Amino acid sequence: MKRRSFxxxxxxxxxxxxxxxxxxxxxHLPKGYTPLGLDTVDPYKAFGKHPDMKVLNDRPWNxxxxxxxxxxxxxxxxxxxxxxxxVMPEDIDVGSWTITFDGESVKQSKTYSLQDLKSxxxxxxxxxxxxxxxxGRIEFDPPAKGNQWGLGAVYCAxxxxxxxxxxxxDVGIKDDAVYIGYHAADTHLSGDPKKEPISRGCPMSKAxxxxxxxxxxxxxxxxxxxxxxxxxxxxxxxxxxxxxxWITGISVRNKVHDGTKxxxxxxxxxxxPVAPGTEVTDENMCIIESMPVKSLITYPKTGGRLAKGKxxxxxxxxxxxxxxxxxxxxxxxxxxxxxxxxxxxxxxxLAWQHFEATVNFPAEGYYEVWARATDSNGKKQxxxxxxxxxxxxxxNACHRIAIKxxx
Length: 407
Ligand SMILES: Nc1nc2c(c(=O)[nH]1)N[C@H]1C(S)=C(S)[C@@H](COP(=O)(O)O)O[C@H]1N2
Ligand SMILES: [Mo]
Description:
By secondary structure, this protein is mostly beta strands. 9% of the residues lie in helices and 31% in strands.
């Protein structure tokens, strides 16, 4: 008979965190056995999330935020959406964690321990807006398959880590490098160890930006497990899928990276606009790079009531991928006229910006407040859902909240 193998101590530790109690006789738990307690895991407790967050899927975990939970200037963990494509790593041993740099375009491959990275390179802190490419997918018609994200797959946290550029310089990169691709410790839903759940990347020009980090800290603390502990890539302003979590390797490629979810129609939109419902061949789909201009009213919550004659203070955030937001406006007449809001400068490039305004309503009744951002490229958010695309990406329509004014 084959000897039974038992769960390791570190795996037990992370299981205990998820179950929410010490597994007293855990050392007798046969490997591959899942504690029953996991079936009733409370994701809110396990991930430290606000009770208003919305679970879209539990295998893999996909948990959405809400506009009113995103009111902070820097988003706290409790309000940050989780988007997983596979099964999160459990057995994290920070002390033995390594990141290997390889690929056609490194001079030679090189492996760093986490400690090497932290001690060898200067650390920087930046805020970064991370938005899932599929945020707002729920509004597309005909509908697109995939998680039906509403508004809440976006956040702006503060990340501390080393510049990917500094590490790439230390590794030594050949002249023919065009793209990087990441590898991570999460596992494929099928359980097949040869399959990666996701392995995306970006062109060298993005990889070499000051703000592109291998980060160890989020909001001044160790990155929470669900958000990429112990190290994650941060590439603000691009689809958040580029910001790989649980990074174990970076490949420097002499062609566009061809990892999981880089090819076919994943994270791609038709190169030229198409009519809703059109079938588009893979060759006519282009990789999404910078995310489009967008904004969110984070206060007040939609559906509020206001006494007649009282002004309403609104506030929120605006972002525009690689660009800056230069103008923020609101409308209370369904877009017939617009009034400018106060708009702050970003804390740093690729961080979202904050806006506020005082709104006066002329009479009793039902209103909607719409918000519209304009970027430094002159692009404005569309009032309605923009160009349909097969996978339901890049919905940057104006956010609206409902307000009733009563005597
Ligand atoms: N290793 C790994 N990295 C990943 C993912 C993943 O499933 N595995 N999901 C990506 C996607 S699609 C998004 S939108 C963001 C979500 O980041 P968050 O969970 O911190 O919100 O992580 C990206 N990085
Ligand atoms: Mo995503």
